[in-house]
Amino acid sequence: MSSVEARLFHGTRDVLPSELLPQKELVATLTRTFEAFGFAPVETPAMEYVDILLGKYGAEGEKLIYKLAYDDGNTLALRYDLTVPLSRLVAMHPELPKPFKRYQIQPVWRADRAQPAQGRFREFIQCDVDTVGTSSLVADAENLAVVHAGILASGMDGFVIKINHRKLLRGMMAYAGLPSTRDKEILRVVDKLDKIGLDEVISELGLIGVPVEAITKLVDLMQLTGSPEVVLGEARRRLTGVAEADTGLLEVEAMLGHTRALGVPETRLRVDLSLTRGLDYYTGPVYEIVTTEIERFGSLGGGGRYDDLLSLFGGEPVPATGVSIGLTRLLAALVKLGKLRARESATDLLISRFSDTPVDLALKVASNLRSQGFAVEWYYEADRLKKQFQYAERKGIPIVVILGASEVERGDVTAKCLATSEQVTLSYDAMTLWIREKLAARAM
RNA sequence: GUGGGUGUAGCUCAGUUGGUUAGAGCGUGAGAUUGUGGUUCUCGAGGUCGCGGGUUCAAUUCCCGUCACCCACCCCA
């Protein structure tokens, strides 16, 4: 057999214990949050028929779909997001009671140019919550409350949720005297405001033939800043009489009211009239979570309402709304900020051994400790104690249990807490209590 | 897909104005009187100098190509 270089496809990554342990904890927290809002879990296959995915994301997005070289190369593709597979699933299961509230934590694939420093990968995990079958803006507000709680729970504290509305955007186009047929190309430029700056946006809009007066009108609106009330109030003043804008404004106001009632602090919410979001399927409120702690880092999550997507799979239109947390990117951000509490192992106790340790007796002690609920690891070799302690140190195992001939003889057990250097020799029962105490203190 | 940059040990990098045995720090392995870690000290392992071709007596060093990676744009999670 010839050997091959061990390597990884660009944009994919291995996740080692030090990162996966905290990730799993975070997923457990997210799951609890999702379920607290009434969402139930679902999983869908990694691959879908190509035509299920086409025509939903827009030209830009569609280019990034990984098509599989299966059959004629035009049959299967890896899923690009979790929203379209959910829509397909709901269309196939009309018996599901509506509103259908589901969460889904699975990887998606995008043939993007990966840039790990910006949290961009070709394979990453999304955590979606979606509510299918209601037009209530409370569902949108719940999306915001859920991501707010989820991102906060991850330990990330510098973030804001940017909010806009597709109808408001169309109203802005009308107000500027621009045809709705051009909204995609124009709004794409508008969306770049905070990245390329005002002057660049103005000149790019000029380049694609937008009249100067229209640019002025758009840009003046986009630049509104301040609290949601201020921005909405000013937008309302300027957009009076534009029907679509009016609907959008009313919906954003209602949604924000519900969101505050759900306990999301005002300071986290920004109405940003330059936010458009690239995916084609959004029809109502749209939102995007951005970190304020890292320059030029992609969004931590995003979502919005997509009332027309379900009808693309036949049948009647079903209103739906959802939001996604980019788990892989969120973790990458936490690592970059040094906020991830890394841990090499989930083990609580390491049972050390010597050449004179009666192995099977010590294994019974290990089993007993496991049945008490502790995570217990056995040290296989009768190495020098120094080496056994070094091993525990490196893996972040908090307590070393020493069980040698002298302990066996006396019928007790010795244990040392590495963090505090405390060492005690106690009876088995007393030891259980002592260990529990030390582990509890550590968790603080 | 477009523009710029970088490829030397597991990681971060030095170096050779072209010359025979290519270095450091970190990490890693062993040890400093055989039941005690995080500090220190000693010794060791580990490199076809990205790959292919060219110039040359001689290339890791110069030239060309190629691949990979990084950064920015685009877009997003």
Describe this entry's structure for a reader.
With 444 residues, the protein is α/β, with parallel strands linked by helices. It has 2 domains: 320 residues, BirA Bifunctional Protein, domain 2; 95 residues, Rossmann fold, CATH 3.40.50. 41% of the residues lie in helices and 17% in strands. The chain has 17 helices and 15 strands. The strands form 3 sheets. An 8-stranded mixed β-sheet has the order 1-4-5-10-9-8-6-7. It has a 5-stranded mixed β-sheet with strand order 12-11-13-14-15, with helices on both faces. The chain has a two-stranded antiparallel sheet with strand order 2-3. Helix 14 links the parallel strand 11 and strand 12. Helix 6 runs antiparallel to helix 12 and helix 9 packs antiparallel against helix 10. It is elongated. The chain binds one RNA strand of 77 nucleotides through strand 5, strand 10, helix 13 and helix 15.
